[in-house]
Amino acid sequence: EGSWLRSLFVHKVDPRKDAHSNLLAKRETSSLYKIQFHNVKPECLDAYNSLTEEALPKLHEDADYPCALVGSWNTWYGEQDQAVHLWRFSGGYPALTECMNKLKQNQDYAAFRRERSRLLLARRNQLLLEFSFWNEPLPRRGPHVYELRTYKLK
């Protein structure tokens, strides 16, 4: 029972008490990210870019909204005529909820969404938690090439 030889082969493993995503992510009150994928009608890509270049920075700069536009770009490879926007919500899910509720009341944003919808074929959003071992993404100026990866935790 208590022999040292047996202790080499028998290990009691405590059951996991939390999901992998919670173990690897930063705390719930840290930043939450939303990545938006907009598939734009090919003939409307320039109009879409002009419209978003005008509207999205206004949200980013408005201190009343707990969100920040980390990056906006068009894809070159993979999905063509696609725009991607990465938003940070400081304060996690509560900040996201607050921002979405305020946007529902914002008439300028509603007009922007109506105009934008005429330019889109499809759109998709995804929420992302920060991994605890990665640095926070910072906005950068100039042309850059990014690789988007997806990890499936098992």
From TrEMBL:
Domain of life: Eukaryota
Gene Ontology biological-process annotations: sensory perception of pain
InterPro entries from the UniProt entry: Dimeric_a/b-barrel, NipSnap_domain
Endpoints of the signal sequence: none
GO CC annotation: mitochondrion
Protein name (Swiss-Prot/TrEMBL): NIPS1 protein
